[in-house]
Write a structure and sequence with these properties.
- The protein has about 500 residues and is an alpha/beta fold.
- The protein folds into three domains: about 80 residues, Archaeosine Trna-guanine Transglycosylase, Chain: A, domain 4; about 140 residues, Rossmann fold (3-Layer(aba) Sandwich), CATH 3.40.50; about 230 residues.
- The chain is built from 16 helices and 23 strands.
- The strands form six sheets. The chain has a seven-stranded parallel sheet, sandwiched between helices.
- Helix 1 packs across helix 6.
- It is globular.
- The relative contact order is 0.14.
- The mean pLDDT is about 95.
């Protein structure tokens, strides 16, 4: 059992510590030589020394803001007195790059996956119903709904028939980034290793019509990729009936798939966090980072995203980049976001969400410091734009918004066959066709939301587990879920509504 101090010190040079539990005013803090001047909620910070107005506030040995007033030791430190300001950054391109120390192939971990003909390995085996435009949403839903548990019983090796519904495809820019993003996302899902077969439904007159989408995306119809045009087959119900027939034919083939041993090098994880609190960066995120370092040594891949939630610490990431080209590619995306959000009331401009603030995070820099810990300590090998195919192994960055459904959709389109999702306040996220493993940052929330949480990382805060031990637990869970173990969100059927391609651009 480790020290049960009411606070957690993260770095010897910090001038704040984090409350492990609720701390009442007047409580003496052992080892720090201070007394709490006011009530401090768990997960929040209190000053360990006097801080002059305008002086840096240090957490993780890094500046998270500046004192908005003269601070006395024992003061509660939060958004009311920790203010953001510009910090001169030294990007130190590649200075801290650490290449992965890969294990020999014979020593790498193994999971049970679905081997595809192109060499990729899936963690699930679904038939997907896709739409080019929202006008086809009802058709896709009705087709998928037909294949209920009873009808799928004769296809035991198929995990389900899932509709992927979105609100785009027409009334939008016909060319340029918005349509490119939609094309990349749809193509990435249709060709995903977890999709055994796909049916793509269109209306017929939409801007994102079947012909142009397939041509631009280099897709070709065949036994396991079918299309339906509603205006050509006779409308809604005729399209539904045609879709049922097509799916039945694909189910026969999809059901021939069997799980077989596969190296962990075929695991691609999308790293997500949502509903973060003051403990996320102390337990769940760094523990997941330890698991990522293990996965990378086994030849696997992890995708760090949510670009607005990496703002403020970009210099720490450019120093870990493989080379200056990779580092500058990341800075280019940061600058795009700064221009895109200029003058807007969003967290890129420093304001975190109400739940984050209530959980102890003062600003986006503090949130970013904790969030980046999901990526572990190995070098950053590449930077990808939203929904681009991830081809390089190791730790990579994909540019996405911070909004969880949009961010995870991009990662899955890029090839992620697992999602790991850390949360402190309690997220109820799930995803298809890629399962989501949810990690709780603290024990009280885990106990309150057991039906949604897969792993409790609160043992790190409670003093019952080290980060290394927790990382090993997470890695074992990754292998189990990749091999077919159901996650809590899958058990509840959460994920069909979380397919959300990035809705960037003009609607007209």
């Amino acid at each position: 059992m480790v020290d049960r101090s009411p606070v957690i010190r993260l770095d010897a040079g910090d001038n704040v510590v984090v409350a492990r539990v609720d701390i009442a005013a007047g409580t003496a803090i052992p080892g720090e030589g201070i007394t709490a001047r006011e009530d401090v909620p768990m997960g929040h910070k209190l000053a360990t020394q006097a801080v002059a107005k305008g002086a840096p506030v240090l957490k993780y040995g890094t500046i998270i803001g500046f004192a908005g007033e003269t601070i006395e030791p024992g003061t509660w430190m939060h958004s009311h007195n920790v203010l953001m300001d510009e910090v001169q950054k030294d990007y130190r391109f590649a200075a801290d790059y650490r290449p992965a120390e890969l294990l020999p192939e014979a020593e790498r971990a193994v999971f049970q996956g679905f081997h595809r003909t192109d060499g990729r390995v899936g963690t699930r085996n679904y038939i997907g119903i896709f739409i080019t435009v929202n006008c086809a949403a009802t058709v896709a839903r009705k087709i998928a709904a037909w294949f209920d548990e009873e009808r799928l019983a004769q296809f035991p090796n198929v995990d389900g028939v899932i509709p992927f519904i979105h609100a785009q495809g027409c009334g939008m820019e016909a060319t340029g980034e918005p349509m490119d993003l939609l094309h990349r996302t749809l193509r990435g899902y249709i060709q995903h290793a977890n999709i055994a077969g796909a049916l793509v439904c269109g209306l017929g007159c939409e801007r994102n019509n079947l012909e142009s989408f397939f041509e631009v995306s280099a897709l070709e119809t065949g036994a396991m990729l079918r299309t339906i045009r509603m205006q050509s087959v006779g409308g809604t119900m005729a399209a539904v009936e045609a879709g049922k027939s097509a799916v039945y034919e694909m189910l026969e083939e999809a059901n021939t798939a069997r799980r077989a041993p596969a190296s962990a090098e075929h695991i691609r994880i999308g790293l997500q966090c949502g509903g973060s609190d003051g403990f996320s960066g102390l337990s769940a995120n760094p523990a997941l980072g330890r698991a990522v370092d293990i996965l990378v040594r086994h030849g696997g891949t992890a995708i760090l995203s949510e670009t607005p939630e990496l703002y403020g610490i970009e210099h720490l990431l450019t120093a870990r980049a493989r080379d200056e080209t990779v580092g500058r590619a990341f800075l280019d995306r940061i600058r795009w976001w700064l221009d895109h959000t200029d003058g807007r009331d969003v967290q890129m401009q420093g304001v975190v969400g109400p739940g984050n603030r209530a959980g102890g995070l003062a600003n986006v820099i503090e949130k970013s410091l904790g969030g980046a810990k999901k990526g572990g300590a190995t070098g950053i090998e590449a930077v990808y734009r939203y929904a681009e195919p991830v081809t390089r192994r190791g730790l990579v960055i994909m540019d996405t918004p911070g909004y969880d459904p949009v961010a995870a959709t991009g990662q899955i389109a890029g090839g992620a066959n697992l999602i790991t999702f850390t949360t402190g306040r309690g997220s109820c996220f799930g995803s298809y066709p890629t399962p989501t493993i949810k990690l709780a940052s603290n024990t009280p929330m885990y106990q309150r939301m057991r039906a949604d949480m897969d792993i409790n990382c609160g043992g790190v805060i409670d003093g019952d587990k080290t980060l290394d031990e927790m990382g090993q637990d997470i890695f074992r869970s990754i292998l189990s879920v990749a091999s077919g173990q159901m996650t809590k969100s899958e058990d509840m059927g959460v994920g069909a509504e979380e397919f959300v391609p990035w809705p960037i651009g003009v609607t007209g």
